[in-house]
What we know:
Keywords: Iron, Metal-binding. InterPro entries: P4HA-like, Pro_4_hyd_alph_FE2OG_OXY. By secondary structure, this protein is α+β, with helices and mostly antiparallel strands. The chain has one domain: q2cbj1_9rhob like domain (Jelly Rolls, Sandwich), CATH 2.60.120. It is 34% helix and 17% strand. The protein is built from 7 helices and 12 strands. It has helices spanning 2-22, 52-70, 87-92, 94-107, 127-132, 195-209, 222-237; strands at 29-33, 43-46, 80-84, 118-122, 152-153, 164-168, 181-187, 214-215, 243-246, 253-257, 272-273, 281-283.
Amino acid sequence: MLEERRALQVEEDASCEQRRRQHRGLDSIQVLDWDSRVFALPLLQIQNFLSDEEADEVIRLGHEELDAQHGGGWEREVAYGTAFFHYHQSNMSRVLVELEDRIARTTMIRPHPDELPLMFTRQVSCAHAAQQQQIPGAIVGNVVPNQRVRNVHHDKNQRENRVVTVLIYLSDSGEGDGGHTIFPCLPAPAATTGAARRSFSSKFKRLFLNGSRTLSGRGGREEEVKLLAACNEQCLLAHEAAVMNIRPQKGTAVIFWNVLADGSPNFRVWHAACQVCMFPYLAV
């Protein structure tokens, strides 16, 4: 009888742990932006979406893939690394399976094989960047002075049927460390004026309607270079920016919808990752 009770207790504890993992972070949902006038779905931030241990496991799996792509020592040579978690990895890793399930329950979209989870990393400075740039930490091939934004893009840039983006930070960023995510068409919570944001919104909407999904300034068009420079200025301002900016916190998820509630494109979610200044940036 005692052994049966112990077995039942172990089973109950395991069940409680599973429920705890499934509901991780869902009790700390914060709405960062929600404009019901344009039928926009809310921009959400969820702290502790991943535990530190889960984040470390995702990093380990991502580094294995990057090692396979570039060989050892890639951190010194690769400025921007992207690791796709292939089907066999996603099914063999408990963390990735639970992550997909957690995302599905949060977004109400079932896991599907059409798009693989991916981890991306940005290094503070690389050997080839140091040789080509005079500005510490600047981006290789910069088109605006003191450039900290590689590009600004909409997540329909590669898949027009992409409905929602879930960005999960795997590393922390302190004040002045860079690595934050900016949304130039959305206002900062403490912004005193919406003029800059409204200007961004109209220009990015026009770009989207003209077929653009990525702004890099490399096409040479003066208007686009100026727009990239304006976004770069917001990156440099960081927490003092007039537009939405989110500082990375390990395990925190940011969820934004690339379509409005009626299914039409959401022009307001153009975004960019600002260059890191102190520590490597990791996200999935």
